[in-house]
Amino acid sequence: MPRPTAAQLAYGSCTVIMSTLAMLLLSQTSSGVGIAVIALAALALGLLVALTVPLPKAREAAAGAAGAATTAGPVGSAGAGAASGRVWAPERREAVSAGAESGRRRSSGS
Q1: Which long-range contacts does 64-69 make (Cβ < 8 Å, 24+ apart)?
Q2: Across residues 56-69, what is the average pLDDT?
Q3: Alpha carbons 3 and 89: distance in angstroms, whole number
């Protein structure tokens, strides 16, 4: 799992603190169970916010390039076919013995 960025940590922490204060003030609870529920809800909200913060552009480009390289096949095959949604498939080759191959060359040259 990748490390969280500084933005993810900052947004998540601020969300936890601000949502905890807001929920405590709005609910006006004084019981230990109520405070625990609010604290858990604030932590869950902070985690959700931290995970949905967009990644920096450099990481997105690297992740996109890595994903495209693994799905495109060999180098040079990701041309117009990959852009149009076609999937790369290897060519079918027939098994040819050494004698038949050399005979084929002779006959085609004559």
Answers
A1: none
A2: 62
A3: 36
